[in-house]
Design a protein that fits this description.
The protein has a 6-stranded mixed sheet with strand order 7-6-3-4-5-8. Helix 2 packs parallel to helix 3, helix 5 (about 130-140) runs antiparallel to helix 8 (about 215-245) and helix 6 crosses helix 8 (about 215-245). It has 12 helices and 8 strands. By secondary structure, the protein is an alpha/beta fold. It starts with a helix and ends in a 15-residue tail after the last helix. The chain is about 45% helix and about 10% strand. The structure holds 5'-O-[(R)-(carboxyoxy)(hydroxy)phosphoryl]adenosine and zinc ion. Zinc ion (ZN) binds next to helix 4.
């Protein structure tokens, strides 16, 4: 959005105003294109948790007016649950299944056990991965030819650069590795701010030395991408092992990979490698369903409606919740298992 480009990122008040202006226009347009009327709808589903307070508020106020005016059932939806369930709109995926969600706003590894029933294996401790891809890209984009700047996604810029870079040139340390006696390195949690500091420091040094040419940027991007992906796949690997030890997965386990960062082909390849090793089926929904979208909220609403649950008895009094975990965090159980990761060979040279 041009407005967010001007404010240099998503500014909460600007986002809220854009929601207020655009929601009625988008809904009218969609109804028009579908050739249906509000009386044809079975219910209205809206994301009410978690997220930016002002944007949730704008969506909720608009939805309350809609359901009151057209006397429709109202289904409040958890944004992360919607991400987890979307895959079921395109193929048959039975509970329980694992979900790895990596985006600009989240990083989460969870076990979907049923509607409204999720166990959190790993969660983000600081900056989400997409936000760090964006920050690193912003630092190096000034040193690149204009063709790299034609996309607004920092992740895509890093991926394009990394394809031509040497990922072994700058060996950044992998987050949450270190000694297995430390609790953090036995968990499935995610942390990217330490890696971000390492990379930004390296860029600053290269800038001082006047060495930030295109080749150097490609090497930094490839080395950063390698460390970030290695971290994500390590935590996933531990999570899959834990589920197998505790018999939490199906006999033929399933992993759904989603979120904007899931567009990264190296991440997909690396996750597929782990899944193959662990006899786990990997499902990657198409990118337009991986990133934030309206279909996922509607689908989650439909899942609840079909089961006859989750319908609000008092829509007027539904509240939004900016912070709301998707389920119980069971990271302490994972730490107790003290899982040492078997070595997995990843052919990073192939990405040079
Ligand atoms: O899910 P999403 O569309 O929105 C939210 O953040 O909720 O994810 C957007 C994020 C951005 O931070 C973007 O840089 C990242 O996904 N992204 C990528 C790639 N494409 C998009 N990160 C790494 N590699 C990519 N190819
Ligand atoms: Zn999201």
């Amino acid at each position: 959005m041009l407005e967010h480009k001007i404010t240099g990122g998503v500014h909460p008040v600007t986002a809220m105003k854009l929601h207020e202006v655009n929601l009625p226009l988008v809904v009218d347009d969609v109804m028009d294109k579908a050739g249906i009327d509000f009386q044809d709808l079975s219910a209205v589903a809206t994301a009410t948790q978690p997220g930016s307070a002002l944007s949730l508020q704008a969506g909720l106020i608009f939805s309350k007016q809609l359901v009151a005016k057209h006397r429709l059932p109202f289904i409040p939806v958890h944004h992360m649950e919607a991400h987890a369930l979307t895959v079921r709109s395109i193929e048959e995926v039975n509970f329980p299944f694992l979900v790895l969600l990596a985006s600009g706003g989240h990083c989460l590894l969870c076990l979907a056990q049923n509607l409204g029933n999720y166990k959190i294996l790993g969660q983000i401790l600081d900056e989400p991965p997409g936000a760090v891809f964006d920050k690193v890209a912003r630092e190096i984009v000034k040193y690149l030819p204009p063709e790299y700047c034609s996309t607004t996604s920092g992740g895509r810029i890093i991926e394009a650069l990394a394809k031509k870079g040497d990922s072994l040139k700058h060996p950044f340390s992998i987050p949450l590795t270190g000694h297995t006696k430390t609790v953090r390195s036995r968990s499935c949690n995610f942390s990217f701010s330490g890696l971000q500091s390492q990379v930004l420091r390296k860029i600053a040094i290269l800038r001082e030395r006047n060495e930030l040419d295109i080749v150097t940027c490609q090497d930094v991007a490839a080395s950063f991408q390698k460390a970030a992906i290695q971290h994500i796949t390590n935590q996933l690997h531990r999570g899959i092992i834990f589920c197998q030890i505790r018999n939490l997965s199906q006999p033929s386990p399933i992993l759904v990979l989603s979120g904007g960062v899931a567009a990264n082909s190296c991440l997909r390849e690396s996750v597929l490698n782990i899944c193959n090793k662990m006899n786990t089926k990997l499902i990657c929904p198409p990118i337009h369903l991986c990133t934030d979208n309206g279909i996922m909220i509607a689908w989650a609403g439909m899942e609840y409606l079909k089961q006859g649950i989750g319908i609000s008895e008092d829509p007027e009094n539904v509240r939004y919740e900016p912070r709301s975990p998707l389920g119980d965090y069971i990271g302490n159980e994972i730490i107790k298992e003290n899982i040492k990761l078997p070595k997995v060979k990843v052919s990073w040279k192939r990405h040079i």
